[in-house]
Amino acid sequence: MAKIIVIDDEEDVRDVLKQVLQRAGYDVSVASGGKEGIELLQKEGADLVITDVIMPGIDGVTTVKKIREKFRNTRILVISGGGNVAPRSYEPDAISTTAFLSSAKNAGADGTLTKPFDRQELIDVIKELLDD
Amino acid sequence: MAGRMNTVGGRLVLMLLLIHAVLMPALFIALATVIDRSTMNAFVDDARIEGRIIGDGVENALESGDSGAVEQLLDSAMLSGHGVYAALQFQDRLVTSSMMTSEDVPRFEEDFDFGEHGDNTYYMSVPVSHGDEFAILRLGFDELPTQQNLAAVRQTIILILVAYTVLALVATGYMASLVVRPLKWLGRASHAISRGEVDKELKANSELREIRELSADLETMRSNLVGMNARLQKEIAEREQAEAERRTLERHLRHAQRLESLGTLAGGVAHEFNNVLQPILLYTDLAREELPKDSETADNLGKVMDLARRAKKLSNQILAFGRQDIEAELEVAELSPIIVNALTMIRALLPASVDLRAEISNDVGAVRCDEAQIKQLLVNLCNNAYQALSGRDGYINVSLKEVIVPEVFAAKYPKLRAGEYAVLEVSDTGHGMDRDTMERVFEPFFTTQQVGEGTGLGLSVVHGIVMRHDGEIVLSSEPGKGTHFRIYLPLADDE
To answer: Residue B339's pLDDT band (boundaries 50, 70, 90)?
Structure first.
C-alpha cells in the first residue's frame, strides 16, 4: 500500500483529501504546514507528498525544494487554488498561484493540480505519478 | 496745414522757404548795390572825362578868341551822350548852348552825386582860365537812361533769383518725394505688420540706398517675425496635441489600472473561492458514495457537485480576466487559420438567421498567441455582438488585417507601441453603447442584460486574454448605430 503525506494549511482540505485517498486505498498522513510535513516525511517516509503551494510559514515551493534535497525518490504533487495569494488591490504584480505552481515545478515537483479538482482527476494523477 | 507741415516734404519745403526768404533779399541787395556802384562810377567818370575834354577845348577857344568855337563845344556837350545842359559862366555873363531846350538855370554850386536832388540830372562844374579872367564851364547830364538801365538790371536779378527759388523748391519737393514715397510705403507696410498682416513680402521700390537698406532690414524683421510666429503656433499646436494625447493616455491608463486592480481583487476572491469549492466538491462526492445510486439524496448530492463545478467554471473565467491563470505558453502562429476555424464554430453556434460576415486577410504576420484563448476571445466578442443585435436586422462583421500603428495613435493607449500589429475587428450594427457603458464594459460581472441572460464575464475574459497577449482593445460605439471592437495584437519579431 502506497504511502501519501498531505500538506495543507486548510483543515477541511486536509481532511477531505485524507478521506478520499484512504477510500482509494492509500495510507495517508496529514500535516498543516511545510515544516510539519517534512518532519513527518523524515519520520514515516512516503511514496508521494501532496502539498498546497501557498501556506503560512514555509511555503509550498520551499517545501518542494527541501524534500527534493533529501528524498530523491518521493513523488511530489503540488496543488493550489487559482488566483492570487490575497486580494492585493492596486498592486499589479500580485503573485499568482500560476507563478507559484510553475516555480514549484522548477523546484522539482512531479505534477500540479489546480483546485478545485474532481476526485477522479486526483486519483488519475496519483496513479500516473506512482506508476512512473 | 499743421499736419502737412509735420511731414518730411512739408518740413523740407518750409525750411527751404525760410532760408530763401533770408538769403534772397540779402543776395539781391548785395548784387544791386555792386551793380549800382559800378554803373554810377562809370557814368560819373564818363561825365568827368567829357567835362575835362570840353573844358580844355573851351580854354583853347577862349585863348584864340574864337567865340564860335566855344558855342560849338557847348553844343557838342549837348549832342554827345546824355547832355542836357551846357553853359559857360563868365564873371559878367552867361553863354549857353543854343541846343538847350530849357532856360532854367540849375541851382548848383558844386559837383553833385549821381541821383541827388531827384531831378534826374547830373551836374558838374569845370573851371576854365581865360587870361586873367576866370570862367566856369557848367555841364548837365541826363541820369534817366542809366537809372532805367539799373532798374532793368534789378528786375532781371529779381527774376533770376525768383526762378532760382522756384527751381530749388521744385527740386526739394522732388527730393522729398523720393524720400517720402518709400517712407510712406514702409509706414504702410509696418502698419500692416502691426495689424497682423505679416505674410506679404516687403520690398521698397526706391533707388535710394538708405531706403533700400531700411526696407531690407524691415523685411528681415518681418520674415523673422513670420518664422517666429509660425514656430510659436507650431509649438502651441504640438503642446495642445501632446496635452490631448496625455489626457487620452491618462484616461486609458486609469481604465487599465482599474481593470488591473479589479483583476487582482477578482483573482484573490477566486483563490479563496476555489479553496472552499475543493472540500465542497469532494465531501459531497464522498457522501454520495455512501448512498444507493438511485436514491433521491444521491441525485441531489450529484446536483450539488454540478453546481460546484459550475462555480469552478465561473471562478476560472474570473481568473482569465485577471490573467492569473496562465497555463499554455504563447506560441508564434498565424492568426488567419485560427480565426477562420473559430468562425466555422461560431456560425454553428449562432442562429442561422444571424448575418455573420468575414473579411480575413491571409497576409497578416504571425503573432505570439494562445490559440485556444484567441478562439475564446472571438467567440465572446461574437456572442456580445449577437446580443447587441437582439433580434434587430443587422449584421456582425469580423475582419483581420495587418496595420502599422503610428506614434501619435500609440501615444493614446498604454499598451500600444508604434509598429506592426494584427488587428482583429468585430463590429455589429446593434444597439451600441453610451459612454458610461463603454467605460465599464470590461469589468467583471458588468452586464446590461437581464439577470440570468449573461454572466457579465464575456468581455472581461476578452480583456484578460488581450492583456495576456500584450495587446490593446480599441472600442468605439454609438448608441443606436453599433459597436466596433478592434483587438491589436503585436506581430511576433522575425527570428
So the answer is: very high
A27-31 β-sheet, strand order: A27-31, A3-7, A48-52, A75-81, A111-115
C-alpha dist (Å) from residue B229 to B232, B334, B463: 5, 51, 46
Number of domains in chain B: 2
**Of B167, B199, B234, which marks where a domain is finished?**
B167
Average pLDDT, chain B: 83
**Does any domain span residue B430?**
yes
Q: Would you give the DSSP letter of residue B116?
A: G
Q: Provide the CATH number for the domain around residue B349.
A: 3.30.565.10
Summarize the confidence of residues B58-86 as an average pLDDT.
Answer: 81
Its domain, for residue B481, covers 327-495
Query: B-chain residues within 8 Å CB-CB of A118?
Result: 281, 285, 309
Domain with B148 in it: what CATH number? 3.30.450
> Does B83 fall in a domain?
yes
Q: B483 vs chain A: nearest CA distance in angstroms?
A: 29
Instruction: Express each pLDDT in B176-226 by its tens digit.
Output: 887 777 777 777 877 887 887 777 777 777 777 877 888 888 888 888 888
Res B217: pLDDT: 86
What average pLDDT score do residues A54-75 get? 87
Cα–Cα distances in Å, from A125 out to A130, B162, B347? Answer: 9, 132, 37
Mean pLDDT of B232-241: 93
| Spatial separation of the C-alpha atoms in residues B40 and B268, rounded to whole Å | 136
Does B120 map to a domain? yes
CA–CA separation, B433 vs B440, rounded Å?
Answer: 11
B316 in contact with A at a CB cutoff of 8 Å?
Answer: yes
pLDDT per residue as tens digits for the range A66-94: 999 999 889 999 998 765 543 333 233 34
pLDDT at A32 over 50: yes
Which of the listed residues B144, B167, B190 is the one where a domain comes to its end?
A: B167
Distance CA B369, CA B116 (A): 134
Is residue A106 within 8 Å of A68, Cβ to Cβ?
Answer: no
Candidates B261, B264, B326, partner chain A, best to mutate (most A CBs within 10 A): B264
Is the residue at B391 inside a domain? yes
Residue A83's pLDDT is what?
58
**Contact residues, chain B, for A54 at CB < 8 Å:** 271
State the count of interchain CB pairs (< 8 A) between A and B. 119
Judge: B281–A118 Cβ closer than 8 Å, yes or no: yes
Taking residues B269-296, what's their average pLDDT?
Answer: 90
